[in-house]
Amino acid sequence: MIKSIVAKPVDRVELETGFTAICPIDGSVDNYSLRIMYRPRCSSDECTYVELSSLREFLDSFRNKAVYHEDVLNEIMNEIIEAANPSELTIILISEYKGIKYVIERKLNMPNYQHES
């Protein structure tokens, strides 16, 4: 579970990291590069942000999990929305399989959305 923190405003946050999961087709290790870009949701002088340690733990939870690339991306997106409720969110997931680079992206623009826990 990804947690959040509350801090002073910034315009945009960009996170880059890597992690692994298991290919559900052949059982090999999938190595991922992940890029997360979001605009934090703010009220008055405070904004909600993704807490980095919990993000790392969440990504590490895929290490022994057999999961498709698209499902990984959507799980990450759902967790970030639940934790930080950003007004804009873009996630890019990059992997390579047998010499084929695979890049998938998902964007959400939610200026008026309020996630309910």
Folded structure, characterized:
With 117 residues, this protein is of the alpha+beta class. It has a single domain (4-109), classed as 2-Layer Sandwich (GTP Cyclohydrolase I, domain 2), CATH 3.30.1130.10. The chain has 2 helices and 7 strands; from the N terminus they run E-E-E-E-E-H-H-E-E. The chain has helices spanning 52-60, 69-84, and strands spanning 4-7, 13-22, 29-39, 41-43, 46-50, 88-97, 100-109. The strands form 2 sheets. It has a 4-stranded antiparallel sheet with strand order 2-3-6-7, covered by helices on one side. Strands 1-5-4 form a 3-stranded antiparallel sheet. Strand 4 (41-43) and strand 5 form a beta hairpin. The radius of gyration is 15 Å and the shape is elongated. It starts with a strand and ends in an 8-residue tail after the last strand.
